[in-house]
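REQUEST ID: PR-0412
SUBMITTED BY: lab tech R.K.
PRIORITY: routine
TASK: structure prediction, single protein chain
INPUT:
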Amino acid sequence: MSTEFILKQIDGAVAVLRLNRPDVLNALNIPLMDQLIGMLEAIDTDPGVRCVVLTGNDRAFAAGADIKEMAEASVVDMYERNNLARWERIKKVRKPIIAAVNGFCLGGGCELAMHCDMIIAGEGAQFGQPEINIGVIPGAGGTQRLTREAGKFRAMELILTGRFFGAKEAASIGMVTRVVPDALVVEESMKIAKDIASKSPMAVRFAKEAVLKAFDGTLADGLDYERKMFYMLFGTEDQKEGMKAFIEKRKANYTGK
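STATUS: complete
OUTPUT:
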């Protein structure tokens, strides 16, 4: 299945979504974001899909937002359009999303990758938040998410200078899950996605929610949330199946119930 800006492929229980504006390095315009979010929300309610791989092409994951859409906009225009609010819908997707990044991953593209739950980066990938170079700042979470990954002092340097940084540096600050050869980015992402898809869907969902909760409050709040999620899983058939399979030394058959 394909649309104008997103190519979709289903491989078992994994959905692969490919950004498809190669002529502009997958710049994120409004129609692309609308299609992407619509697909992610549809996948989130599809019991046949348990994990998502989001990627671009060899040249770029996404080189940023489409500047032509906003270059002449006023404060009122931007406020009324409220385009950045749609990004909150990505955050609400409950199934894991793995960003498979090759080439340029800049500005809004970098923010989109950081909205995902893991980033598998090719050795030649280039990250950056260069918005300062065109008179603005990151607006889709870059100042907040990059700071949480890199810390105040590195984030200040990266955001205030707008310089690009490679996959190895991204890994060194904890922003990237794994660095692999460029040609293996999607393959490695699929391996992880299929591994995740083999687990209990409810346990995966609760685990994702619990990890994200660590960023929302105190350690005590996070521990309390984790404990409740742990207890709630004992009301699922998958918990009974998983523990029974472990005792019987066989592979579990998870149904998502």
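NOTES: The mean pLDDT is 93.
REVIEWED BY: pending
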